[in-house]
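=== RUN LOG ===
request id: a7f3
mode: sequence -> structure
chains: 1
length: 266
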Amino acid sequence: MEFEDIRYTVDDRVATITLHRPERMNAWTPTMESELRAAIAQASEDGDVRCIVITGAGNAFCAGMDMARLAASSQGTPGAVAQPPTARDGDLEQRYSYLLAVPKPLIAGINGAIAGVAACIALYCDIRYMADGTKLTLPYSRRGLVAEHGCAWMLPRLIGPMHAADLLLSGRAVPSSEAAAMGLVKMLPADDFRQAVQARASELANACSPRSIRVIKQQLLAAWNQSLAQATQLGDAELALCRGTDDFREGVAHFVEKRPANFKGG
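=== RESULT ===
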C-alpha cells in the first residue's frame, strides 16, 4: 500500500510506521490520521509482524496539529482539520482508542519533540521510549483548547492525578528526564535511539510468545475495570488454557534446551 504522509517498513518481525513530514516536524494532518489507521490495520493482520513501532522522521516525532490548519480552524475555515468520526459509545471505538485493541505490542519511539494530538496517540501505546534531551507538551490551555482524545482519562491512570493535572493545566513543555521520572516514558540515550528502540522491539517480536502477548494485553486492558478477584480469576482461567498450546511447549523446551525460542503463536 502506498502512503503519502507516513512510511511503512518491516524488519525482523517489527513493523515501523514513520510519520513523514520532516519539513513540518511531522505535523499532524487528516491524511496522516487515516494512513496511520490503515498502517496499524495492515501490521495487525500481517502474520509476519509481531511488534509495531510508531516514530517520526528527522528530528521530531510530531509537533501536533499542523499550525497552518489550526490557524485556519480558529478563523472558521471549513475543512481545516479532520472532522471526528461519528460518536460511538464503546471505549475502544473512539477516535484513537482503537490503538488499545491492537493485538500486538505497540511502541511509541519518541525520537524528538512531541505535542498535542501526537502525545495523545503515544498515551495509547503499550510502551513509550523517549530520546534523552527531547520534550513533550500537551499545550491545550495555552491555545484556548481543552484536553482532547481521552487524554484527561488516560493520563491520571498512567501517571496519577497530580502529574496529569500539572501537564494538562500548565501546558508546559516537559523534558524527557521529567517525563521518565513521572513514569510516562522510558528514556533512552539520544545517540543510536532508533537502533535501541528497534532492538527492544525485536526482542519482543522474537523472544516472546505472540499468543501470550495477545492475552496479556487483553488482561492489562480488562484490569482497568476489574476488581482484584476478577483479574485473578481471569488470569487463572487463561493460565489453564495455556497448558495445551504449542507456545507453552516451546516456552519450556527452549529454556530447558538453552536455545533461542521459536514461537509460532499457537
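=== NOTES ===
The beta strands are 6-11, 14-19, 51-56, 60-62, 106-110, 113-115, 127-131, 135-137, 174-175, 186-188.
The chain is about 40% helix and 15% strand.
=== END ===
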